[in-house]
Write a structure and sequence with these properties.
The chain has eleven helices and twelve strands. By secondary structure, the chain is of the alpha/beta class.
Length: 283
């Protein structure tokens, strides 16, 4: 598992959980331009690895991810924002689309609500402010992680412990059945492993926000993306989908209005757990 944020200068902050004793290593990696912008004292903690500079709390040497399994990175800071007036869709209409069309299910934190800690609390505990998400105050944050690595490690370890002990929700279970029955694709932003506990094998976007070559080659085949519990296009996946498949439609299942739907898209407002239960009965 990994937690990560990335800003305009490509700084990436990852916390890896590994080993039977759940030893936490905090990895910070950045390009040369970002490295040169760090304070001299902070630079001394970094080692050059290939084309990037890397800090490891445990001094482990992590190799670059296997490039054969990676496509391209999403464009930075590009999210789909439409604020249109989407059409409402009924359970019956949605079930017919699932039966007859090629669909990508794309899940956000809302599908896990009540099962794992909310991300807002985690971000607050990790001192990730809105300014930091925008790439501001980043150098100070890097220095603080290096000065107090155990503080961040304990927070993320507690989060992963709660995720490890959590059980899939009704929505996770029903979605797993639907994906298996109809051969649809499952994509998620979540690192809580709840989809995996249903024996699903989702494509996971987290940290580096990369899409697989498998998805890149097939994206135009999918007529619909059905989002579940996704408030915003945080990873830029929906923008990427629309650019490569302009005729594709998005259907949002969420408690609140979402900002990524156009007039041609669809919305179903309501509790994802109940909606997925009803869908399971129809399908």
């Amino acid at each position: 598992m990994s937690w990560g944020i990335e800003n305009k200068s490509h700084e990436k902050f990852n916390i890896f959980l590994g080993g039977e004793e759940k030893e936490i290593d905090i990895i910070i990696s950045c390009d040369e331009r970002s490295f040169l912008s760090l304070a001299d004292e902070t630079k001394t903690h970094f080692t050059k690895v290939g084309n990037e500079y890397r800090y490891s709390k445990l001094n482990h040497s992590y190799e670059t991810v296997n490039k054969d399994k990676i496509g391209e990175a999403f464009p930075e800071n590009q999210k789909l924002v439409c604020k249109g007036s989407p059409k409402n869709i009924s359970i019956a209409e949605l079930s017919e689309i699932i039966k007859t069309q090629k669909v990508i299910f794309y899940t956000g934190a809302g599908i896990s609500a009540g099962a794992v800690p909310v991300m807002d609390k985690l971000m607050n505990d990790l001192k990730i402010s809105e300014k930091l998400k925008e790439g501001k105050e980043l150098q100070g944050y890097v220095a603080d992680i290096i000065r107090n690595p155990n503080y961040y490690a304990e927070i993320i370890c507690d989060f992963f412990d709660k995720c490890e002990n959590a059980k899939p929700t009704t929505a996770h279970m029903e979605l797993a059945k639907i994906v298996r029955s109809y051969g649809h694709l499952l994509v998620t932003e979540n690192v809580d492993q709840l989809h995996q506990k249903t024996e699903s094998k989702p494509i996971v976007f987290a940290g580096h926000d990369m899409y697989s070559k498998e998805l890149k080659d097939r994206v135009r085949d999918f007529n619909f993306v059905i989002t579940i519990g996704l408030n915003t296009d945080e990873s830029g996946f929906l923008k990427w989908y629309k650019e490569r498949n302009p005729a594709g439609k998005i259907i949002s299942i969420n408690l609140i209005d979402t900002c990524y739907l156009s007039d041609d898209d669809f919305s179903m407002k309501g509790d994802a757990q109940e909606i997925m239960r009803q869908l399971g009965e129809l399908l």
